[in-house]
Amino acid sequence: MIGFPCAARGSDGKWYRSVLQQVFPANKVVEVLNVDYGTKQIVHVENVRPLASEFFRMPVVTYNCSLHGIIDQGVGWTTSQIDYLRTLLLFKTIIAKFEYQSITEGVYYATLYGDENSNINNLFGSKESCLLQCEKTHVDYAIRPSGYTRNNTSMPLKRKGGIDDNKKKLNTQLLPVENLSIGSTHEAFVQYVSDPSAFWIQTQNFAKELDELMDKMAKMYQNDLKADVVKNPTVGLYCAAKAEDGEYYRAIVTEIGNAKVKVQFVDYGNSEAINNCCIKDLREEFKKLPQLALKCTLADVRPKGREWSQEACELFTKIVLDKALSVHVLVQADGCHFVKLTDPDAQGEKDLAKLLFAAGFAEKNDTKRLSKGKTNSQVALPSTVQYTGMSFQHLNAAISGGIERKCATFKEQMFSIGSILDVNVSYIESPNDFWCQLVQSTGHLKLLMYDMQTHYRNSEFQPLVETACAARHPENGMWYRALIVQKRETPHVDVLFIDYGQTETVSVFDLRKIEKDFLSLPGQAFRCSLFNPVDPTSAINDWTEEAVDRFHTFVGTAANSFVILKCTIYAVMYSEQKIVFNIVDLETPFESICTSLVNLVKSTPPKVPSGPSFRLDTYYYSTHNVKTGTEEQVIVTSVKNVRHFYCQLQRNADTLKDLQLKVAILCAQLQRVTVPPVFGTLCFAKYTDGHWYRGQIKATKPSIQVHFVDYGDTLEVVNSDLLPIPKEASEIMAVPVQALLCSLSDIPDDIPLEANSWFETSSTEGEFKALILYQGKIQVNSKIKKLFELEMLTEGTVVCQDSTSVEITVKPAQARTNVSPTQAYAELDDAKHITKDTMSFVPKTSHSKTLTDSLERKSQHEFHEGQQLDVYITAITDAQIFWCQSADSEELDQITESLADKGEAADSMNLCSLSVGSPCIALYSEDQLWYRAEILNKTGDEVSLFFVDYGNKSQVKLSDVRQITPEMIQNPVQAFLCELQGFDSLEGSWKTSAEDELSVLTADQLLQLTVCKVTKEDDKPKCYVRLECEGQIINESMRNQTIKTCPDEIPDEPSVELQQVQLKLLTANSKFK
Question: What gap in Å lies between CA 500 and CA 453, rounded to an integer?
């Protein structure tokens, strides 16, 4: 079975501890992972054995690793890259620093160090240009506080009321960037030119500060040449680098070589390759001044050819260098400023773009400009409301003001309680108010952001009429999806960036209409508040300053270490203004933040509640401390089907009893007073037994549907049978949901309706011992699962498998769609006590004909002339007739896994029931695996079998034959009969070597099969086919294996069929006369 430990003999003849990875039955080979070496091998099945118990004692000491900070840019790795990595790592002693473990990927991310502590990650990443910093990642689009640059790949988190210690340390390691706002004009000098589309300017805004910094750096670094030298520079390191002119400049390391390092000078834009000894540590005092070299592109121009010519670059360099130019910023995108350059001192044409046009080196390429001169005019804006954090739907409804027109709206992500999500934290106001993003949607958001930058880069402002829009962030100049939440007196609005959670004030001229294509992805940020284990009904908690700091440290450490956070949704709350919060806990593999903050919450003195009032919109979720691998006594309270039913834990019986008493008392009081209407979906609802229970309204139209959360039933309820839950009922609200959603494990998808109905009537109100296999939905143990191996022969009749094979008739419980919650504690009848925990159900052997019919029905493949399939040949009968399997092995893998799991445990064949054609499963002697088969005949203690999924026959010991169950015949038989098209026995016969030749041509080869004709043989389809393998037509290749029949061997009086054949041949020949 896939994933099982085994012993495998490798190509060197040695045995290795291994894990089974894949099975290829057609080729009789398997793929195994040698766990002590991390290598994979393809081995024949005869070289695989069960792993003896004594070989489990030694732990596995290999780790599945990935280079930290390396990215394949979505195109995979080339052979040359893999070969280069092998030269760096194989058979060498290295030091591995484990940065973090990705639980979801099962991979350890590590930084490797080789000889002289050289960083192998950087060495590989620099040479192959695959360092994380080389590609704009999802984090590059994230909204950052001021001071962040693109070189910061840690998760950006904004925090009101100060910056935590980690962030202070982080910001001092990075250099801020001079910000040139859109529409501004500056005096600047061009410091370095690559071409007119890529050059670096330096404004005069910090000219004095730069002179002072250069003087200080000269004094600091020129005096002691050996001081402050960086021994092992890394890509992305800010440093003081000695240039060719002998002066030290601020720089960033961009590439690492053997003896030299490539750096870019952040205040001038040019790059140089310098000796390692010329890289010195950049002191903190030299990091305060922003990077002064700003990358620019000349607006409104493009080269006449595919790229700028050398003459164009030389002319542009000549007209810009050593001149004080006027730089007007038109657009800012992807860290580049699109600018208009003019030379105020020029005698003739002052616009440098026009000079390139006149010289014939460039052509017009309109950079669409933002509208100017409208800042004092009245700009039409959509109606807005004061934003309070309400959901997107509520915002759109409130803002539209009831106008009946189709507006652009964003979809919102909603999660049910108990959901466990992989998330990143995108924005923090406080532990009471922060935003998360789903990790699984990171790639989709990255693509969306890339498309938005491309689409809106050259867009023009147009007045908006909708609140859903695209907005340019005022700090980084990138475009984001946004909602307008408030107008201001100035031409500015407040917008919520829906994919990150931040609210900012932006100019109305930085808004654009949102395109339809950008609406399909739901808003990626969802609002959260930390779960308070002490007071679970509170959404606003008075966290201590220490708790706040620990929360920020927890999130920041996880982000900087690229650790994915697990987010568990415990409840959903709304304020009176419809602010929605998901009450959550965040976890790493090592820590739960809510658990860590419990003591801090307990030590916090109670505070009188203030501000908006919050109410639950769901009841609280709880794991009830259910652990994977443990057994629990449960009561089944409601059944939808085998994959969806509800259980209560028997150990919670006292809690449930106390809850019901409190609900009954409160509802009696509520019925005697006038209760004000309360928004939300939570309520008390009267069940059919006349008692009140906690409920949640699931639908109001066409009728009111209420889900009874502690039992799992959903019923239609009239309005008079509903009561609102008052705010004072905090004790009742604090009790978590008692009904646990469960699913039977290892149940096939296509369970018949009869089995689901039988499970409902037989298990409801039943007491069971449940084995928890994994959590999410709880999976019940195989003892209960055995109920569904029952063949529905007669109503209520089953076979109890034991030494005497006693047949027991069980009266099914009365069929009920909805069971009274109070009846969950009813006593079970005697028959249920007999069967529930001890009974194992199997099909009756006397009804094997039913299974035979089912298996035959499953074998009716649909074939038609002209159909094309990719196949493998699994068995050859003769040179012309053979059996094929589809190359799509998904169903075959399911069959193999199912039989490997259940074959040994299946029941032995009853000798009295053996008959030709009876289906069974059998152990094949060559590979010791179980296969489906049909009985051909019986001789002594052996039976002759036909393996229906492969087409071969074999003699098997009767002791290796088992009964087949209905579950094992759900998949169709996989082998189908074929014959090569175009061969006629009247034309000749096959050579003795023909069968071997067909085997040589087709063995283990992927074949392209074309169906030429379909007939029936023994009520099974037979296909006359044309086979092709890698361009070779097998039918044609086999013609040299035939022996022509001489004319005198033809009988004097041919049959009617032969006469028809001859007639056809004569007719065909007459065409050529």
Answer: 16
DSSP type of residue 206 = T
For residues 962 and 906, is the Cβ–Cβ distance under 8 A? yes
Label the pairing between strands 740-744 and 778-780.
parallel
Instruction: Yes or no: say if 759 and 787 are a contact pair by the CB < 8 Å rule.
Output: yes
- Phi, psi (degrees; rounded to nearest 5) at 743: -150, 140
DSSP secondary structure letter of residue 620: P
Q: What is the 3-state secondary structure of 893-955?
A: HHHHHHHHHHCCCCCECCHHHCCCCCEEEEEECCCCEEEEEEEEEEECCEEEEEECCCCCEEE
Cα 855 to Cα 187, 249, 682, 966, distances in angstroms: 85, 80, 51, 9
DSSP 253-288: EEEE-SSEEEEEETTT--EEEEEGGGEEE--GGGSS
Candidates 597, 536, 535, 602; CA nearest to 571 is: 536
Question: Which of these, 921, 995, 916, 929, lies nearest to 961 by C-alpha position?
Answer: 921
- Cα gap 868→498, rounded to integer Å: 49
How far is Cα 679 from Cα 617, in angstroms, rounded to an integer?
Answer: 9
Which residue from 865, 882, 848 is spatially nearest to 966, judged by alpha carbons? 848
CA–CA distance, 949 with 931 (Å, rounded to integer): 8
User: Within 10 A of 411 (CB to CB), how many other CB atoms are there?
Assistant: 13
Contact 473, 143 (CB under 8 A): yes
SS3 164: coil
Sign of the Cα torsion 984, 985, 987, 989 reads positive
Q: What is residue 878's DSSP assignment?
A: S
> Is residue 540 within 8 Å of 615, Cβ to Cβ?
no
Give the amino acid at 198: A
* Model confidence pLDDT, tens digit, residues 728-760: 787 888 888 999 888 887 676 667 888 888 888
Q: What is the DSSP string of 451-470?
A: HHHHHHTT--------SEEE
Rounded to whole angstroms, the Cα distance separating 251 from 248 reads 9
For the chain, the average pLDDT equals 75
- Residue 300: phi, psi to the nearest 5? 70, 10
Q: Token digits for 1056?
A: 């009617």
Prediction pTM value: 0.43
User: Pairing relation of β-strands 692-699 and 705-708?
Assistant: antiparallel
Q: How sure is the predictor about 648, in pLDDT bands with cuts at 50, 70 and 90?
A: very high
Helix (H) or strand (E) holding 532: none
Strands (E), 268-369: 271-275, 279-281, 294-298, 301-303, 325-333, 336-342, 362-364
Mean pLDDT of 51-58: 81
Strand partners, 435: 427, 527
| Measured distance CA(351)–CA(341) in Å, rounded | 6
Radius of gyration of the chain (CA): 38
Q: What stretch of H or E contains 659?
A: helix 653-670
Model confidence pLDDT, tens digit, residues 447-477: 888 888 888 887 888 777 678 999 999 888 8
The span from the CA of 408 to the CA of 411, in Å, is 10
- On the question of a cis peptide bond just before residue 702, with omega within 30 degrees of 0, the verdict is yes
Place of tokens 């094997």: 848
What is the distance, to the nearest Å, from the Cα of residue 565 to the centroid of all Cα atoms in its chain?
14
Asked whether 932 and 964 are in contact (CB, 8 A), the reply is: yes
Strand segments, DSSP code E, in 537-670 are 565-575, 580-587, 614-616, 631-641, 644-649
Pick the closest to residue 299 from 324, 326, 321, 330 (CA basis): 330
Q: Please, what is the angle between helix 120-128 and helix 79-89, to 10°? A: 160
| Coil vs helix vs strand at 995 | helix
Per-residue pLDDT band for 55 (boundaries 50, 70, 90) equals confident
